[in-house]
Specification:
The chain has 435 residues and is mainly α. The chain has helices spanning 2-28, 37-48, 54-62, 69-88, 91-103, 107-124, 127-145, 150-163, 172-179, 185-211, 231-249, 251-254, 258-279, 285-293, 298-314, 317-325, 330-345, 347-357, 366-378, 388-399, 406-432, and strands at residues 359-360, 363-364. A hairpin with a 2-residue loop joins strand 1 and strand 2 (363-364). The protein is globular and about 60 Å long.
Length: 435
């Protein structure tokens, strides 16, 4: 047991170290991603050392169950590819341009409109895609409008990682924790709607308290383009995403797994796009660029962390952690520990671990599970280590020469994430009174 715990801790620390190095590598080589190497090496050491037999690891990775990481990855990648498709077709840039034009010379109006736009998009797409798409645009317009980009960047990041709690598809951590414990789309939303509203209200209140005075100076009105250059492709993407979400809502009634619905919708979208793009002689740029942007490094990362968690479970370490989390007050304990763990482990491996911890004899404790979902989302803006998007986001800021140090991020993060976490957990406590 001691050896497995030591290997797991070293793996986590090495992952954190590599993640912290990534912004420096991204500045010179934007496509270099190395954080997944440590978990992969850790998993291989556990298998070669026979702390977890290869056959047992394979059986766990391919088991016909909701916690199967391959099914969860299919759901995540399908939703991500549909969101990236819309981005490549110009949909997100179009919306950002509309926000700028309607804000006029008012920074306060722009701030609120940006927060709302990011929040709505995150609910129906993915927090990572929205963050990585809007960040370069914010840096661009702030430079040309001669205003401080930091309040808008922080608002964008907070909105994306707060409203991502609303639907199961908003964050891969939601998918892993909920789908891995047999929570369907509609049930998830029924529970998480109120906590998300509480968290969203608290986050915008705290953002306004922090940055309201900085937004009083008028800015130069922006005249960004706000038309869709590829309207048919955007419509195709919206129909596919909207149809997918509709069927996900009905998945429990249709007795269809969510991963299969998302996969079919994604495949149909890309099969439909190929002839549509060729007929209009626009080439295959949208399709090619979408596949190039897919976060393939998440695959070895998630699978390797799953093996590490399996090894911990095999030696009884997860049972010890379960005894700490579950019991009286488990909702608050689970939420706070998940919040802190996300910033020690990163929120994806934290979710892999908590998916096991919150379950006893195959039955999940709902208060602890949903609290862990809240912790995994809100924890993303406590420190840059809280989520992969945070690491990539900091790298983007360096590329655009935006000054935001690690320490300054944590100061803003503490002021924003802690009240948002408490408000969200308070909302969840109210929901649980009626379940």
């Amino acid at each position: 047991m001691t050896a497995v715990i030591i290997i797991s801790l070293v793996t986590v620390l090495a992952t954190a170290a590599l993640a912290l190095l990534e912004p420096m590598l991204h500045a010179r080589h934007p496509s270099w991603r190395i954080y997944w190497i440590a978990p992969l090496v850790g998993a291989l050491i556990l298998i070669v050392g026979k702390w977890i037999p290869l056959g047992e690891a394979y059986a766990g990775l391919t088991a016909d169950s909701a916690v199967n990481p391959i099914k969860i990855l299919i759901l995540f990648f399908s939703m991500t590819l549909m969101s990236v498709f819309l981005d490549e077709a110009g949909f997100f840039r179009y919306l950002a341009g509309r926000v700028l034009r309607h804000a006029g010379s008012s920074q306060k109006k722009l701030f609120i409109m940006l927060y709302l736009a990011v929040s709505v998009l995150t609910v129906f797409t993915s927090n990572d895609i929205v963050v990585l798409t809007f960040t370069p645009f914010i840096c661009y317009f702030a430079k040309h409008a001669e205003i401080d980009p930091v309040p808008y960047l922080i608002a964008e990041f907070v909105a994306a990682n707060t409203w991502s709690m609303a639907l199961i598809i908003g964050n891969p951590t939601n998918i892993y924790l909920a789908a891995g414990n047999y929570i369907d789309f509609a049930t998830y939303f029924g529970v998480m709607a109120l906590p998300t509203l509480f968290g969203g209200a608290m986050s915008i209140f705290m953002l306004w308290a922090l940055f309201g005075r900085k937004l009083e100076r008028p800015m130069r009105p922006q005249n960004e383009e706000s038309h869709l250059s590829d309207k048919p492709t955007v419509i195709l993407g919206l129909v596919a995403l909207g149809g997918c979400i509709l069927f996900l809502v009905l998945s429990s009634y249709l007795d269809m797994p969510m991963w299969l619905i998302a996969a079919v919708a994604c495949v149909l979208l890309y099969l439909s796009a190929i002839p549509e793009l060729l007929i209009r002689r626009r080439g295959m740029a949208v399709v090619k660029h979408s596949f190039k942007r897919a976060p393939y490094d998440v695959i070895p990362f998630v699978l390797a962390m799953f093996v590490v968690v399996m090894a911990l479970g095999r030696v009884g370490a997860t049972d010890v952690l379960r005894s700490v989390v579950l019991g009286q007050g488990e909702l608050w304990r689970s939420g706070i520990l998940a919040f802190l763990s996300a910033n020690l482990l990163n929120n994806i491996p934290m979710s892999v671990l908590f998916s096991t911890i919150v379950s006893m004899d195959g039955v999940a404790s709902l208060p602890a599970l949903y609290a862990a979902v809240i912790g995994s989302n809100v924890g993303a803006f406590f420190t840059p280590m809280g989520a992969l998007a945070g690491i990539m986001w900091m790298a983007l800021l360096k590329q655009h020469r935006v000054s935001l140090s690690f320490g300054r991020f944590v100061l803003y993060g503490a002021a924003l994430s802690i009240p948002t976490l408490l408000a969200s957990l308070g909302g969840l406590s109210l929901v649980m009174l009626f379940l």
